[in-house]
Amino acid sequence: MKYIKYKINNNITVRKFLEAKDYSKRSIDEILNSAYLLNGKLKNKSLDLKEGDEFKIIIEDEDLDYEPIEGKLKILFEDANSLVVSKTSNLTVNSKNQVNLSNYLAYYFKENDIRNKIRLVNRLDMNTSGLMLVAKNKYAHAYYQRQVENNLIKKKYLAVVDPNTDLDFLYEARISYDEENKKYIASNNGKLARTYFKTIDKNDSYSLIECEIFTGKTHQIRVSLQSLGHPIYGDKLYGSDKDLDRFLLHSYKLEFKTFIDEENIKLEDWPNFMTFLCKK
């Protein structure tokens, strides 16, 4: 069992304090109904907090929900409530029928005495590499999900497309699932996907495009670039004729405020695409 600890600086009720810390209503109700510690004593209703009080939220131990399997994890950030890893390509995030990133995370949790389930804040396709945010407990996960819903977590990707491509604009497309062809398509009946595309390098062999997403629709970068006539290298599902071991899309920038401390974290992780570009 672990705790989230606060030192109270002003007079306020427990509920108002948790609301000010951006806990979700569901999390607040759960904390008040289950129990918390106020100056070392167990409580289970919204009492008045006073300056100088020590307030602790109880984090109950949980069983791991994935089999722990040892695997290489590239960790770029970690604190008491979250960590950021860079996922490799050709690795699913949580597929039950093959070894996946969640198996590696479960092994890391077990080895580091993190007694909680695996909670992914964002997800990447199997062949998309890059930065992923992982919550270490249910309250951190609820906090980060609220940030995602309010578009407060900034994510940027790098994609490789055809040579000498100039892009610098916000692109809006409606995307829906094509059941017959088993893929997503641009469609007037779909959900709105908003992406800013900007060329950051180009030559006679390829162009490197920065993609900032403002919505979290499945395959939105891949579908949008295909719609623009610039499919991602190696992405055969969405129109590429390049025969690569993966498609060249990487989540390379992540910015968010941490749970509890609200520290602004900015991370970068540049991909090594040249190995694949030499094969094209």
Automatic annotation (TrEMBL):
Lineage per the UniProt record: Bacteria, Bacillati, Bacillota, Tissierellia, Tissierellales
GO terms of biological process kind: enzyme-directed rRNA pseudouridine synthesis
Substrates-to-products reaction catalysed: a uridine in RNA = a pseudouridine in RNA
Keywords (A to Z) from UniProt: Isomerase
Pfam families given in the database record: PseudoU_synth_2
Lineage: superkingdom: Bacteria
GO molecular function, one term: catalytic activity, acting on RNA
Similarity annotation: Belongs to the pseudouridine synthase RluA family.
Keyword Isomerase: yes
PROSITE patterns tied to this protein: PSI_RLU
Entry protein name: RNA pseudouridylate synthase
Stored InterPro entries: PsdUridine_synth_cat_dom_sf, PsdUridine_synth_RluA-like_CS, PsdUridine_synth_RsuA/RluA, RluA_PseudoU_synthase
Domain Pseudouridine synthase RsuA/RluA-like stretches: 83-226
